[in-house]
Model the fold of this input.
Amino acid sequence: MRFNKYIWDLYKESTEGKKNIKKWDSLSDVFSEKYSKECDLSEIELLQKNKLDKYIIDAKVNWNCLLRDSFLKSGITVDSAYNCYEKWIHDGIFLDNFEILNKDNYQIWTTEINTFSQILYSVFPDYFFPYMLDCEFLKFQKICNEFDIPIPEVPKKKDWEQRATYYIDLCEALLEFRKQFSFNPAELCAFLYDFAPQVLLELEDNELPNPSKVWFVGGNKDNFEFLDNAKPDDRDYWQGNLDAQRGDIVVMYCLTPRSYIHSIWRIFGNGFADPFFYYYSTVCITNQIKLDVHITQKDLEKNALWAKNPLLKKNLQGLNGYPIKYEEYIELLSLLKSKGQNIEKLPTIKPSSKIETEDLKDEREVEIKLIEPFLELLKYKTSDWIRQMSVKMGRGERNYPDYCFGANPTRGEETAKMILESKYEIKTKKDLQAAYFQAKSYALRLQAEKFVVAAKEGIWIFQPKNNNYRFEDYFHCNWIEIENPDTLFELRQMIGKK
Done:
């Protein structure tokens, strides 16, 4: 939905709205003693040497006040804020020649943006905003998407410099939004942290879809109290896998000193990249079911199937977000049952029954009974493709690819992200080669990134290597294999809806 000024005005004039706007007029509590930190003697001596004793309280240093006063002395303006922020990151932060933060400390700027942004907002709210969403960047993205606030693409995981400066890009985007709708700084905060989340809550679907994949995540001793006391409907954000989908299953493993599988969870929302979370890849987990029995690492190592798992051979290094195969999860359920666990209420994956394998009469029946149910399993809707799109291939010649995805049908400017060409049957290599050349010609004409050939015998996926297609380079599976959850997951990665 676009921003609705009438609804916003009703909120702004309500008792709750006024209360929420007022509380953002100042953020004085960020400078209280609770934000001071223990420090060693050398740091206190440096402060005393620079005659900055006022920042020392009971052998603690109030770093927030140091930062605030440094920012205040910088003389920030709307026009200079962007450059000032980049300069602080690259040159460090000083107050009266005392180094508060050294230069190019990208990880601190990224992972401590909550604190930095609150201080910056208290100093200069006309430009900066307080970012208050620990591990919840997906919520921020949803707000921006829902209200048509364009924000830049999230930087790559290893690009710490871009991750550090990403906050200032968000400030720029929200400043434009404020100007467009005449928000003052406190109103923007109330919009971000009260009004917009209420709108999202109304749109939220709490019913989880059937799971399609199982993932490992791990908790250390800092997480044990939460895990032991979490209620079934509690949610929390965890390091996970970007490929995780809403409804997927999560196996929670407690690391040393426990070293056992603690509980089974579900994923509430798709995996997402959080530029301000150290580990970047994030999932929201919920619906915890605590296990009555424990499966230890040694139990898994003794099991014939699990003993082959590469994760166990690496002593569980890289546990968070590690994919568990369908057969491995079924075996895990069997292990739990053998130890006395009631597994009836534990979630599981049901192989798809939507793909029919009955006798088919013609190409259109292949499309209706095989291909289109398969596309549904890949999360596509009928609105995501154009069937039989008219494409000019030569002088006066028009052709009609069977399925075009991510298509632009504008005459003379036709493009598509992916092509799927359907056939009734492909019995021989010659049949496949003919279908390959036909689909390839469409893909090249439409600048597609990949193309698929589908028939009674299965599907063939062709992706270019070094910008070239080769007939010998394809991924093939039949319709029976597609019903395997692990195969279906792999197909979603290759050609599923992104």
